[in-house]
Amino acid sequence: MKSNHWSQISIIVLSVCVSGQSVAQQPSDSPAVLDTVKIEQLTGIKGKLDSAEGVFKVSQPRTDLNATVAGVKMTTPMGLTSWAGFQAAGDQVMLMGDIVLQEDQVNPVMSVALDNGLEVTALHNHFLWDKPRIMFMHIGGMGNLDVLATGVGKVFAKVQETQSGKKTTAVIKFDAAKTSLDPKPIETIIGSLAEKTGEVYKVTLGRTTQMGGHSAGKTMGVNTWAVFAGSNEKAIVEGDFAMLESELQGVLKALRSAGINIVAIHHHMVNETPKIVFLHYWGAGSVSDLAKGFKAALDTQAK
Questions:
Q1: What pLDDT does residue 171 have?
Q2: CATH assignment of 36-161, given 3.30.70, 3.30.870, 3.30.429, 3.30.390?
Q3: What is the spatial distance between Cα 218 and Cα 220, in angstroms, rounded to a whole number?
Q4: pLDDT under 50 in the chain at which residues?
Q5: What is the Cα–Cα distance from 7 to 58, expressed in whole angstroms?
Q6: Are 276 and 243 in contact (CB under 8 A)?
């Protein structure tokens, strides 16, 4: 009788242990289920589900471009389709996409993306000798489905709104070799020396990274720089930002808020630690306003 009593207890304990092990092995977070109907409603674009990868993709062909590359008449299946893919990632949603843009659409569309919860992760060309000039802006994000899909919808809407090819970038005509600006405001605002290089003024700020266990810094090209040309009232700034990946979105937002155009986002090196991202930009306006925009972007970076 006593033996049977202990056998029953042993069975109960074993059952509890097995049951507890089974519960522990279950994932604590159930994966998000993509609401494909909502994605289509919020983006305004019909999509297609890849059931093998669990990705719902919406696409918008740029049939309006009438593009040629080195004299070859292009069709939309030759890489001229904007798209955004949504994938469940735990209790969140992951977004990746590529937006096909004419050069004058880049910065208006980028501002919409940045202002609506999306990240801009790259900006570059895919072709040479293309007419009209075509750029590709990569977007991403991780978070709430409604926020991401709404942001994508506003990006697609801005592409449609601006696709007429009408010029949106102000043109300021002058000869940079005849620069007459005073560098003092630049130096005061930025807090660094503006070195005269030829007829223009340049500010260069170094960063460091490791390449193959060796330090690479300012003189090896790991630097942020700005060249100012023109007059105090009518000037341009152009240059390059060297950033950590975590700094990219802050720098983008600061430059766009200052009306400075983003020209390219890419890397200059491979296998460096930490990873350095480079951003090229162009802005026009008064020297003081341009220097303030540049400084605002600098201030978003880690000290």
A1: 75
A2: 3.30.70
A3: 5
A4: 1-3, 5-31
A5: 61
A6: yes
